């Protein structure tokens, strides 16, 4: 149980285009989903927390207009990187937490390469 | 603010031997949770073990066990009978009660030698 999927696993795009990443909880309802960014050989950096039906809460220093988060249902959250630039290239990971459970279960991650 | 410290950037162990990964944390809360996650080369974060602070008994999951020392704010992970598949980055994390955010340590890279 507690499986989280993420799609796509790898995306390459041109500078200036937008990319959407989907995160789904497959066998549980997630009241809260999280988006992280991970640079090589570093720990996870929380970008934002999203709750179903409400606006995402962004961490300090994360541009909300660049990283658009939508949590449309209890099983789906999306992260859209708008007008992507090479410095946005990174590994993006989502996680989901079942209602009141506290533990976060992670998706397999998405590698974004912006040319 | 919570902090999590992993003082060992890298560790190595022989296959079938036992290894202990260190983690210390700092929190002013009495209600919190502690976790160990494993990130193999695939980069999928996998939950290894979870400990509720109010529980005195150390959590155990098969070959994985923790030594939770609440007063010392220490939460080490012991891996017994190490296997090649245990090779990964291991992250210690804490979650305050009432908060949704995990606070991660910087990780320990574990190498398992055949």
Can you give a write-up of this model?
The complex is a heterodimer of chains A (115) and B (114). Chain A is mainly β. Helices cover 0% and strands 55% of the residues of chain A. Chain A contains no helices and eleven strands. Chain A has strands at 4-7, 10-13, 19-25, 30-38, 44-51, 57-58, 67-73, 76-81, 90-98, 105-106, 110-114. In chain A, strands 2, 4, 5, 6, 9, 10 and 11 form a seven-stranded mixed sheet that branches. In chain A, strand 7 (67-73) and strand 8 form a beta hairpin. The model of chain A has no long low-confidence stretch (mean pLDDT 93). In chain B, the strands form three sheets. In chain B, strands 2, 5, 6, 10, 11 and 12 form a six-stranded mixed sheet that branches. In chain B, strand 10 (88-96) and strand 11 form a beta hairpin. Chain B is globular, with a radius of gyration of 14 Å. The chains are: A mainly beta (115), B mainly beta (114). The A-B interface holds A 32, 34, 38, 42-44, 46, 49, 91, 93, 95, 97, 102-106, 108-109 and B 33, 35, 37, 42-47, 50, 91, 95, 100-102, 104-107.
- The quaternary structure here is heterodimer
What string gives the helices and strands of chain B in order?
EEEEEEEEEEEE
**Mean pLDDT rating of chain A:** 93
Flag low-confidence runs of chain B.
none
Element-by-element helix/strand order of chain A: EEEEEEEEEEE
Cα end-to-end separation of chain A: 37 Å
Helix content of chain A: under 10%
Q: Counting H and I runs of at least 4 residues, what is the number of helices of chain A?
A: 0
What's the shape of chain B?
A: globular
Overall radius of gyration of chain A: 13 Å
User: Which segments of chain A are poorly predicted (pLDDT under 50) over 5 or more consecutive residues?
Assistant: none
**General form of chain A:** globular
Give the amount of beta strand of chain A, in percent: over 45%
Helix content of chain B: under 10%
> Count of helical segments of chain B?
0
Residues in β-strands, percent of chain B: over 45%
Radius of gyration of CA atoms of chain B, rounded to a whole number: 14 Å
């Amino acid at each position: 149980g507690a499986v989280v999927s993420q799609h796509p696993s790898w995306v390459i795009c041109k500078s200036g285009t937008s990319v959407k990443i989907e995160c789904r909880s497959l066998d549980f309802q997630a009241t809260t989903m999280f988006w992280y960014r991970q640079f090589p050989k570093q720990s996870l950096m929380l970008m934002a927390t999203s709750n179903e039906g409400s606006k995402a809460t962004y961490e300090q220093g994360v541009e909300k207009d660049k990283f658009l988060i939508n949590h449309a249902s209890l099983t789906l959250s999306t992260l859209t990187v708008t007008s992507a630039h090479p410095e946005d290239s990174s590994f993006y990971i989502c996680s989901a937490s079942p209602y009141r459970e506290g533990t976060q279960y992670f998706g397999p991650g998405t590698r974004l390469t912006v040319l | 603010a919570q902090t999590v410290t992993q003082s060992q950037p890298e560790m190595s162990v022989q296959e079938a031997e036992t290894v202990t990964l260190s983690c210390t944390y700092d929190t002013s809360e009495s209600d919190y949770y502690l976790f160990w996650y494993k990130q193999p080369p695939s980069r999928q974060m996998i939950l290894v073990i979870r400990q509720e602070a109010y529980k005195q008994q150390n959590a155990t999951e098969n070959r994985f066990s923790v030594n939770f020392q609440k007063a010392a704010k220490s939460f080490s992970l012991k891996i017994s009978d190490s296997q090649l598949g245990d090779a990964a980055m291991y992250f210690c994390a804490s979650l305050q009660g009432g908060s949704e955010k995990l606070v991660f340590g910087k990780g320990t890279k574990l190498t398992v030698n055949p």
